[in-house]
Structure formats: structure tokens, C-alpha cells
């Protein structure tokens, strides 16, 4: 992994999840950008240029599927892997509909958070 960009973006409306993910990933050397809404998602991502994006399914105002599709429709962002995460039992179907590369079911073990990042970066 090239170390000049160890940036990750996390979209979730649950402040506890944002702070736990921030703590764990920052501890591993990641620059963590957290967002509690997905409005203006394209500009938010262009500003922080993450290597990986975590997207919650129920993120306001429009939800993770639409937000992920906006990311995948942008020429500059479409190749950034998106890890879809949700407590929904249909998560694999939702992730597929959204166009995400990977998914992580909530609640998740903190080890799974870092494993998901390794998985998507390996498959790029």
C-alpha cells in the first residue's frame, strides 16, 4: 500500500460508530474523515481524496445506495472502493445494488473493519 495516501472516509449517522472507527483506524495510521450525512458526497470526497470509503445504508438525507451510485458515476471517484455497511439482513443485495465493492454487516468485530480495507485494496 502506498503510504502517501492512507486516507479513509466514513459515512454513518451513528456518532458511536464514527468515533469507534475513527479511533481504531487512526491508531493504525489512517487519516480518518467522518461524515454524518451524505449530502454533497462527491465534493466531500474530492476534498479528502480517500483510498477507501465506508458507506452506511441508512445515511441521511438520501441513503447509502444513492450516495454510492453518485460516487460510482463520478469519473474521479469511481475507482475508489466502497465498503457498504449496515445491520440490514439483505446487506449483500443492498451493496450490490449500490455498486459497492465489499460489505460489512453490523455489528462487526473491529478486526473485520481492517480486514475489509485489506480485502478491497488487495483486489484493486
Describe it for me?
With 124 residues, the chain is α/β, with parallel strands linked by helices. The chain has one domain: Rossmann fold, CATH 3.40.50. It contains 5 helices and 5 strands. Strands 2-1-3-4-5 form a 5-stranded parallel β-sheet, sandwiched between helices. α3 packs parallel to α4. The mean pLDDT is 94.
Order of helices and strands: EHEHEHEHEH
Average pLDDT reading: 94
- Uncertain residue ranges: none
Side by side, the strands of the main sheet go: 2-1-3-4-5
CATH topology label? Rossmann fold
β-strand percent reads 15-25%
Sheet with most strands? 5 strands, parallel
Give the number of helices.
Answer: 5
- How many strand segments? 5
Shape: globular
CATH architecture: 3-Layer(aba) Sandwich
**Helix amount:** 40-55%
In short:
This protein has helices spanning 15-27, 41-48, 64-72, 91-98, 110-122; strands spanning 7-11, 31-35, 52-56, 82-86, 102-105.
Amino acid at each position: 500500500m502506498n503510504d502517501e495516501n492512507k486516507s479513509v472516509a466514513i459515512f454513518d449517522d451513528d456518532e458511536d460508530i464514527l468515533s469507534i472507527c475513527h479511533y481504531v483506524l487512526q491508531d493504525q495510521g489512517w487519516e480518518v474523515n467522518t461524515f454524518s450525512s451524505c449530502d454533497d458526497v462527491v465534493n466531500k470526497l474530492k476534498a479528502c481524496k480517500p483510498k477507501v470509503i465506508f458507506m452506511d445504508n441508512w445515511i441521511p438525507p438520501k441513503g447509502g445506495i444513492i450516495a454510492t451510485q453518485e460516487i460510482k458515476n463520478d469519473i474521479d471517484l469511481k475507482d475508489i472502493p466502497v465498503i457498504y455497511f449496515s445491520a440490514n439482513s439483505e446487506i449483500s443485495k443492498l451493496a450490490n445494488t449500490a455498486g459497492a465493492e465489499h460489505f460489512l454487516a453490523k455489528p462487526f468485530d473491529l478486526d473485520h473493519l481492517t480486514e475489509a480495507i485489506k480485502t478491497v485494496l488487495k483486489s484493486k
